[in-house]
Amino acid sequence: MSADPRLARSRPQQHQPTPVPPPPPPPPMGNLLSKPGSEGTPDESEQSPAPGQAQVVPDDMFKLKFCTVCASNQNRSMEAHLQLASAGLPTISFGTGSLVRLPGPTITSPNVYHFNSTTYRAIHAELAQQNTQLYTQNGLLNMLSRNLSIKSYPERFQDWVPGKPRLDHTEDQGAPGTEAGVVDVVITCEERCFDAVLDDLHNKGGKLNRPVHVFNVDIRDNHEEALVGGKAILDLALSLNEAASQERGMYGDSGWQGGVGAARQGFDEKVPDILAEWQERWPNMPALWSLAWF
Amino acid sequence: MNSSTQALGQLESARSLALGDGRYYPTIIPGVLPIIGPNTNAALETRRWGADFLAETFASPTWPSDAKETCSLTVLPTLRAYLEGENDAGVVKSAVQAAATIYPLVYRHIISTPHDTSNWQLMTAIKSNILRRMDTAPPGVRICCVKFVQQVVLVETPGMVADPRRPEQNDISLALVPRDHPLMLHANLEAEASGLLDRLLDIVHGDHSDALLVTAALNSLGMLVQRRPYIANKILSSVLNFNPLKLANSPMTPKNKVMMKSMERTTRALLVNVIKRNPEGPFTGRIQQYLERIHRMRLDVFDESNRKRPAPVEPTDGLDPSKRQRVGASIPSSHPVPPLPPGPVSFRQLFTLDPNGATAQFDVQAFKDPEQLLRILVPVLQSIDEAKLGNAINIVRSRYLDLSKTQARTAAAESASLNDEEEEYEPDFEPEDAEQIVNKLDSAPPDGMLPDRVPSAPLAPYKLPQAPPLTEHEIQKYGDGTVRRVFGMLSSLDETSSRGKTTKGGFNRLAASSYDRDSWVTILSRLATRAAAGLDDPDEHIKSAFSGLRKGNFSLSESIRSALYNYIMYDWKKRIDVAISWLNEEWYNDRLQADIAKMNAKLAMNGNATNSPACKGNYQRCALRLVDGIIAFAEGTDKVLLRFMSEIPELDRDILQRMKKMAEDPERIDLAIMVLQYLYMFRPPAKEICIEVLEDMWHTNDRAKPSAKKLLSRWRPEVLETDMKMESANGALEVKAV
Predict the structure, then answer these.
(1) Which domain of life is it from (chain A) (predicted)?
(2) Residue of chain A whose alpha carbon sits nearest to that of B225
(3) What is the ipTM of this complex?
(4) How far apart are CA A168 and CA A76, in angstroms?
(5) Into how many domains does chain B fold?
């Protein structure tokens, strides 16, 4: 494992003391794909990007479709959404909570909003009006202004109808490729959300007969961890996408019957290996995985 | 390849049209099929696109299943061609997905049109192709086959018929198939479904290293349990026998770890979903047991801290029978020592090793003579077996250690549990569900509760020792201190609060309905006047020898009185209202005491008619003291005195005589006259006294004569006349007048 060139890059990331949380600046909307995937943090640019892991997946390459999920579709899933979308991967995001919950003036009085209807802009306006100083200081306003540049409102996973076209979301970041309303990979940020996703997929009954890899990456819910977790998710997504496009490159006799060993393997069967390798790289984010059905 | 790119572009625009509105699918499919179809020698990209499109099209929720049913028949040849003539995994995967979606549609079509043999044959061919692949295809395809099998099982087992009259509303299942269907033999379908279900469950119990297939199968079972109660039993029994942690026996590679965890979690999600949907189901109990067991197993497998071999469990005070015997080792203690009783332990219990033995009950105090005791003890000590004694000491020592440890532990447990909670994962960004918060609050101890005491060492009920009785002097000192404190408070409240208030409660007011100065004054004056009233011995004058000792209660009143006096005199002009209300209270109390004394006297009359002691009130004494005090400071312009004199409840000669005294100061003559005049006018009962005092003044105070004369000429002119006569008698009677 130590020979993995990516190791060298990711290790210092995990152990670097994340100082003041610099909530990621909302990237400019226009040059989304031309921009490097990382947020341009200095330590990132100092190190040479690992070979074979381009930060932006070129448009002519095969792309898996991703979905990030956390509890409120605000912090972790949105950070990951941004990073995946910035890497040119088709991405949508959801929350599994019953309501959107944001910290309020005290721990027992959170600010609560409805999913699918309250826009990030409206929440931003309300919080700014409530207590600008407090919500600037705890990073909420910054986070919300990032979010409103990604998509317009938090969505609830349980209310999502997979397979329903998402033509009304074309303005969202990462929208190209997700028009049909299905994804290949769901990445949750907390075990609770992982359970909720599997449970909801049981309830939905798998009517589409379409396989979906559901992953969980345990990320603590704060800005710093979300940033690191977003990088970890991007790492996972790029590894998965690479495997999938390799499978896509194989054909017929030159494909799974022609090769030997790992080269014969298709994408789906490689997933446990990819995840295990990823887990070695990111030991602080315990992972889970399941092949579920839309 | 340019043409294929062009074709793909066209196809893509057709697809986006359909994505925009699902109603376009029936018109688009016939247009697309020739391009993607098997006969056209389409490029790989186009075939992949085609297979994906078919899977997406029939899965789409945007168009009704009736329309899908009709269209599904048209794509059967294409699907079959994909499956039979294709090697690309991507195409096959999507084709199997499309077939899984289409199978129920074709199935329903054949139920309603029993003679459509060709389409059913096509579908059957597709089905057998897929089933053939199931064991040999690459895993990515196999999982899609698993889902296809699930669909077949779903439609070929009996479901619930919601409404027989409206077949289109019903779940597509074996229940819809008529018994006499020419193409679909009921028994065959049922048998096939049962066989396929077994294959599905075999995957779960099969190769555990293939988590992909296992989780794919597990995740497809949920819907079967939910919609086919008929086979739910079989599925759940099978799942409950599944051990997702079987891989724990193989080397713990990172991959195996992640796969085990994932399978465990997937199984759990499936079973939890079953319980959630049917909490009263027959399986709930078994599922819960299973979940608990798996949870414990997972802890065993994954808890890194427990990976080390635990220290061998050995009895420390004996020999382990399962071990090789050490010859010649003596077993220290043959009979077991009873454990200490729970709860607090006395030293006697701590040291008693055999509570039933005779020696434990023996009272050493029976030996009166210490010499005798010594004579017995020394030989006994000499005869003690050293090993036994050492053993006994060790037992007591370990008991003692245990005791001190449990105490320390329980004390530490509280702080430790606090630490635990702090370290628990708390999303600092987003609080939990309201439900969770409520649960947490429910389980939290009530706010006001004291932390539990250390249970192993409850304290004996603690009583404060009785304080030594206070001496007279101390009582006096502390009483005075208390009174001083109240007055300190009074002066801090002074002037600010009570000025605005004009309403007076009178005698019936509650002493302290608020905390203002008025209330405190009322309390104080009532304390002074009423608290000790009647407690002084009526025979006080007789037992004068003891009066010094009996002063206790009485002196409290006196000290309050003098404190009140000092308080008033400290700023008498402003505190004149305090003086007035105090005197009112004094007067009222005197009246009450007088009434009581009168009643007692009446009662006493019946018996021995002793003379009732004259009721010695406090009012006059206090009033005189106050008047004396005030007069000493009053100036000629102090009209406040006027108010004081007019508002105190009772005037008598002694009090008014003080006016005469005041008038001896020429500057205050006017004030004195004014007081008398005012009282004459507004206090009719005091009229006579006023006149007498004035007359007296007229006689004795030359300087006051002019003012007094004015009034006397109106009130009692005869005085002036007699005086004239006396004067005319040339002073002969002057001696007499004094």
Answers:
(1) Eukaryota
(2) A202
(3) 0.80
(4) 23
(5) 1
Q: Rounded to an integer, what is the distance from CA B659 to the centroid of its chain?
A: 70
Residues 623-662 of B with CB under 8 A from A: none
Chain A to chain B Cβ contacts (< 8 Å): 198
Closest CA to A231 of A90, A92, A76: A76
Q: Which residue is listed with tokens 């609080």?
A: B431
Residue B289 domain flag: no
Domain assignment present for B362? yes
Structure tokens at B491: 């002066």
Q: What is the mean pLDDT of residues A284-289?
A: 91
User: In the β-sheet with A66-70, what is the strand arrangement from edge to edge?
Assistant: A91-95, A66-70, A185-188, A211-217, A287-293
The angle that helices B229-240 and B186-205 make with each other, rounded to 10 degrees, is 20
Which residues, 6 or more positions from B149, have their beta carbon under 8 angstroms from its beta carbon?
A: B131, B134, B196, B199, B200
Reduced to 3 states (helix: H, G, I; strand: E, B; else coil), residue B511 is coil
What is the homologous superfamily of the domain A49-97+156-294 according to CATH? Response regulator (3.40.50.2300)
Render the burial of B416-441: b for 16+ CB within 10 Å, e for the rest.
eeeeeeeeeeebebbbbeeeeeeeee
Alpha carbons A249 and A245: distance in angstroms, whole number: 6
* B143·A267 Cβ contact <8 A: no
Amino acid residing at B451:
P
Q: Does A198 touch chain B if contact means CB atoms closer than 8 Å? A: yes
Q: B732: alpha, beta or left, given left = phi > 0 and alpha = psi -120 to 50?
A: alpha
Q: Where are the domains of chain A?
A: 49-97+156-294, 98-155
Mean pLDDT of B91-100: 92
Answer whether A233's CB lies under 8 Å from A217's CB.
yes
In this predicted model, what pLDDT tens digit does every residue of B472-502 receive, in sequence order? 788 888 888 888 888 888 777 765 544 444 4
pLDDT in tens, B510-566: 666 677 777 888 888 888 888 776 665 554 444 444 444 444 455 778 888 888 898
B219 to A74: CB separation less than 8 angstroms, yes or no: no
User: DSSP class of residue A169?
Assistant: G
B190 touches chain A (CB under 8 A): no
Tell me which chain A residues have a C-beta less than 8 angstroms from the C-beta of B436. Answer: none
A103/B148 CB distance under 8 A: no
Measured distance CA(B29)–CA(B631) in Å, rounded: 120
When CB atoms are compared, the residue of B16, B141, B258 closest to A289 is B258
Q: Is the pLDDT of residue B355 over 80?
A: no
